[in-house]
Automatic annotation (TrEMBL):
It comes from the Eukaryota. NCBIfam families: rplP_bact (TIGR01164). InterPro entries: Ribosomal_uL16, Ribosomal_uL16_bact-type, Ribosomal_uL16_CS, Ribosomal_uL16_dom, Ribosomal_uL16_sf. PROSITE patterns: RIBOSOMAL_L16_2. One of its GO terms (biological process) is mitochondrial translation. Belongs to the universal ribosomal protein uL16 family. The keyword Coiled coil does not apply. One of its GO terms (cellular component) is mitochondrial large ribosomal subunit. One of its GO terms (molecular function) is rRNA binding. Pfam families: Ribosomal_L16 (PF00252). The keyword Glycosyltransferase does not apply. This is Uncharacterized protein. The lineage of its organism: Eukaryota, Fungi, Dikarya, Basidiomycota, Pucciniomycotina. Keywords: Ribonucleoprotein, Ribosomal protein.
């Protein structure tokens, strides 16, 4: 009986000694040896099961702002710009663009689907690029049907952006992009939007409301001192040249009289 108890006690002591040695060896090992490869192929430490992962794998990359000043916003209206500003109605980076012909509110889903259609159509063309000129940063809140008035604003539904008439929302470009291919791809993207659009190029003029604005040749606002002196010299020379001719005409008139 005593022999069996002694054997059990010795086995228990040996197990505790092995546990202590393994813990000390694991703690003294270099951090590289304790790094393991996770299921997603990312390195993780041995105690990563008890800590939150720092590297997050984003599968669905959607158009969502990182942060906003306010949680909710007013619905607002898309005004018809008639004050003279033509900002955002012409191309900036690409060779062809998609411009809206009416004031509209575009949701993030509309922009994502239209951008996917553009990228899918331009995939066979080497070096082609897609530029998005607007971004959905306005939260839209919706209340359910047959809901009584009051009780605060509705809950968040989706992100959107306001595009006024003549706003360029997409641009495409590339060294191997042909005009017929660009127009075909733009028609695919226009079919995904809830408004009427038009395709523009670098020769298209700016838009102001319903009318196109032709570019004006503006004179330089700053006149240097040399230019002012040169204009004065030319004016004085012209006056001096005209004075003898006037005197000759007066003498001829007197002689004829």
């Amino acid at each position: 009986m005593s022999t069996s108890l002694f054997n059990r006690a010795s086995s228990l002591v040996s197990s505790f000694s092995r546990l202590a040695v393994s813990s000390s060896s694991s703690s003294s090992a270099s951090p590289r040896s304790s790094i393991a490869v996770g299921r997603a192929g990312l390195p993780r430490t041995a105690d990563s099961l008890f800590q939150p992962a720092h590297l997050l794998q984003v599968r669905n990359k959607s158009l969502v702002p990182r942060r906003t000043k306010y949680r909710k916003a007013h619905k607002g209206r898309v005004p018809l710009a008639l004050g003279g500003s033509t900002k955002g109605t012409t191309l900036e980076w690409g060779d062809y663009g998609l411009r809206v012909n009416e004031p509209v509110r575009l949701s993030a889903k509309h922009l994502e689907v239209a951008e996917a259609a553009l990228k899918r159509g331009l995939k066979p063309i080497r070096g082609s690029k897609v530029y998005m000129r607007v971004f959905p940063d306005i939260p839209v809140c919706i209340k359910g049907n047959e809901t009584r008035m009051g009780k605060g604003k509705g809950t968040f539904e989706f992100w959107s952006c306001r595009a006024r008439m003549g706003r360029v929302i997409f641009e495409i470009g590339g060294p191997n992009l042909r005009p017929e291919m660009a127009h075909a791809v733009m028609r695919l993207a226009a079919a995904k939007l809830p408004c009427t659009t038009e395709v523009i190029d670098k020769t298209s003029v700016a838009r102001l409301g319903f009318d196109d604005v032709e570019p004006e040749k503006l004179a330089p606002r700053v006149t240097t001192l040399g230019e002012a002196q040169r204009k004065m010299q030319l004016a004085s020379a012209a006056a001096a040249a005209a004075q003898p001719s006037a005197q000759a005409e007066a003498a001829a008139a007197i002689a004829s009289a």
